[in-house]
Amino acid sequence: MKDNVAKRYKLIISYDGTAYCGWQVQENQKSIQALVQQALQTALRHPLDLTGAGRTDSGVHARGQTAHFDSPVSFLPSRLLLSLNALLPPDIRILGLEPTASDFHARYSAVGKIYHYHLQLDPVSDPFNRLYRTQIFSRIDLDRLKKAAHFFIGTHDFTSFANLKESGASAQDSIRTLKRLDVIDQKGGVRLEFEGNGFLYKMVRNITGTLLDVGMGKIEPERILEILKEKDRRKAGPAAPPQGLILDSVLYEPYPR
């Protein structure tokens, strides 16, 4: 049954990005956004636009991607959630679906994001983790890596750690605030936890690649401050591979600290 006014709904989406070109719809490629939008249109029987909190690249995963859509159709959210998960492939799951304020915007209402990057440091990896960790075969000095991580925290111009595009937010403003960059021990390696008010294109992967250079002894930890000031992508390390990166959550006000 249709109402006169469309209502807005919020989705929390988890996915294994291995088989996809990324979140965003791309011509002649399989994307998460396209499949979720198609499932919504099939279940609700009307065209709609699905807006995500941000892009994830090919091979990158998510535990808590957030999106929104509008619908004039009355439905029970718990029933639609079941229908969507029945329509979607098993590597994409809708974890939550609820009505939200009409002015909520998955991207523009976000006040921050948390990313995790998983590094496999032991020489023999668990085959069940191979799609979700990046195997590092070189010896990594974690003390050096942790020291370098500290220099990223705070408000900086992250031009040196972003693959800037000709258009978009990163081309206009490359200043971001990184609230924390924690190095957490886990079986077989470590997890880098990034929390910030926003991230530029490939910023997390570029920072991780540079931290690995520090850990391998290629550059000194203090060099991070110089690279930030130089605002030159060529001065930082290579981007770390996509499979170790997970969008853990998108933050909105109010949220627990």
Describe the structure.
The chain is α+β, with helices and mostly antiparallel strands and 257 residues long. The chain folds into 2 domains: 2-99, 2-Layer Sandwich (Alpha-Beta Plaits), CATH 3.30.70; 112-251, Pseudouridine synthase I, catalytic domain, C-terminal subdomain (Alpha-Beta Plaits, 2-Layer Sandwich). It is 23% helix and 31% strand. It has 6 helices and 10 strands. 35% of the residues are buried. The mean pLDDT is 94.
Describe how the helices and strands are arranged.
Blueprint: E1 2-15, H1 32-44, E2 51-52, E3 61-73, H2 77-87, E4 92-99, E5 112-120, E6 134-135, H3 142-150, E7 154-157, H4 169-172, E8 175-186, E9 189-196, H5 203-215, H6 223-230, E10 245-251
Parallel strand pairs: 3-10, 5-6
Antiparallel strand pairs: 1-3, 1-4, 2-3, 5-9, 5-10, 7-8, 8-9
